[in-house]
Design a protein that fits this description.
A hairpin with a 6-residue loop joins strand 12 and strand 13. Strands 1, 2, 3, 4, 5, 6 and 17 form a 7-stranded mixed beta sheet that branches. The protein starts with a strand and ends with a strand. The chain is an alpha/beta fold and 423 residues long. The chain folds into 3 domains: 192 residues, FAD/NAD(P)-binding domain; 133 residues, 3-Layer(bba) Sandwich (FAD/NAD(P)-binding domain); 91 residues, Immunoglobulin-like (Sandwich). Helix 1 packs parallel to helix 2, helix 1 runs parallel beside helix 7 and helix 3 crosses helix 4.
Length: 423
């Protein structure tokens, strides 16, 4: 079986990429999704706040997903559900890529593709990655699992809750658990800043008088059969607990919102180079990885805060994958690296070829600390290309700048995206 484009993942990124590829003229596009329905994580995000950029209106997660599912159906894009991709490699013929998937209905299936779009999303970091002392009692959930239990299954995980980590899912679940009648004792965050959007801190914590304890972490979990309480402590600048600052909090539930990890096992299998900062693929201006024909977008590339940006990025990946199918791999010129500077942790893309980029290129990045009265500066070999004022910048909010092709000569050694506070 052969296809032009195989999209791995049927969440918001995969749907947007498949739709963009089809609209660009590639008819043979197929979506492979391991869940029984399209839409991804949006199906359990019943709160509003989605779609303000994309549709200029406020939608819930399922409503936002439905817009793309309906559009994919109207374009007759096939989607194979309950299908897990277990292998991605270069085709034995030397042309294209070989995708191996398995499902109960079809068994093991191998199919060749001219291009593959990686849109597998991300997973939550588990308790095992945190090394918190204690036994293994019931009542410890990742925030996303708790969200699914409450919003889709109709179960309340607990009555007295402590949340570790202030990522957006954790903040949203603090409000959700409160609305369902639980008592959220506090949200503890090991960093001196929140990892979530400012609006979520206000709407989910402040509006419900839920304490946010920055520079705190859980150092012990009590309970044998079920969680009976946790011990939190303040941490120092090295994120190590400070003796004597321990505080005992009784609870029957601990929710973990301690970071997201892009799902890149398939990416590694095919030889995609990953960024040590984002744990996602390193891509060029076309969102193509170092493996020709393999594109990446959405949370598998880098963790986003707004689904609108996921869709926008995925559309570009789909269009570029379509162009690759039609025109093939074109010879590339100089790969100019985009280098983070100052408080900038990473950039997407990581390299650009000015001859291949469109007239304007969106560069997305995150900073590693809270900044006030900051500036974003883009330089090429010491020459300033762009300077923008930013009153406030935070790690929990993705930033972006627009890089114009006319600014570049193609002979630059490197381009630096810098952010920091100015005098």
């Amino acid at each position: 079986m052969k296809h032009d484009i195989v999209v791995i993942g049927g969440g918001p990124a995969g749907l947007a990429a498949a739709i963009a590829a089809r609209e660009k003229g590639v008819s043979d596009v197929v979506i492979l999704e391991r869940e029984p329905e399209l839409g991804g994580i949006l199906n359990q995000c019943i709160h509003n706040g989605f779609g303000l950029h994309t549709f200029k209106e406020e939608l819930t997660g399922p409503e936002y997903a439905a817009r793309y599912v309906e559009k994919a159906a109207a374009l007759e894009i096939p989607a194979r559900l309950n299908t897990t991709v277990i292998g991605l490699e270069r085709s034995p013929s030397g042309e294209g890529l070989l995708v191996t998937s398995v499902s109960r209905r079809e068994g093991l299936v191998q199919e060749e593709a001219k291009a593959v779009v990686l849109a597998m999303g991300c997973r939550e970091r588990p308790r095992g990655a945190l090394n918190i002392p204690g036994l293994r009692p019931a009542g410890i959930f990742s925030a996303g699992t708790a969200q699914r239990l409450v919003n889709r299954e109709g179960y309340l995980p607990g009555r007295e809750v402590v949340i570790l980590g202030s990522g957006d899912i954790g903040l949203i679940m603090a409000r959700r658990m409160t609305l369902e009648g639980a008592k959220v004792k506090c949200v503890a965050e090991i960093q001196p800043y929140s990892g979530g959007l400012k609006r979520n801190i206000v709407q989910c914590l402040n509006d419900y008088d839920i304490p946010l304890k920055l520079s705190h972490t859980v150092v012990d979990i009590r309970g044998k059969e079920r969680v009976t309480g946790v011990t939190i402590a303040r941490v120092d600048e090295s994120l190590k607990p400070i003796p004597g600052t321990e505080e005992e909090i009784s609870c029957d539930t601990l929710l973990l919102s301690v970071g997201l990890i892009p799902e890149n096992e398939l990416s590694k299998a095919v030889g995609v180079e990953l960024s040590p900062v984002t744990s996602g693929p390193r891509v060029n201006e076309s969102l193509m990885t170092n493996i020709p024909g393999v594109f990446a977008c959405g949370n598998v590339l880098h963790v986003h805060d707004l689904v609108d940006y996921v869709s926008e990025e995925a559309e570009q990946a789909g269009k570029n994958a379509a162009a690759y199918c039609v025109d093939g791999q074109k010879a590339r010129g100089r790969e100019i690296p985009l280098c983070p500077g100052g408080a900038v942790r990473y950039t997407v893309p990581c390299t650009i070829d000015p001859e291949k980029m469109e007239s304007q290129l969106v560069v997305r990045f995150r900073v590693g600390k809270n900044l006030r009265g900051a500036s974003v500066v883009v330089e090429a070999d010491g020459k300033e290309l762009l300077r923008r004022k930013r009153p406030v910048m935070a790690p929990g909010e993705m930033e972006q700048i627009v890089l114009k092709r006319e600014w570049l000569t193609g002979s630059e050694e490197k381009i630096t995206v810098w952010a920091g506070e100015e005098g």
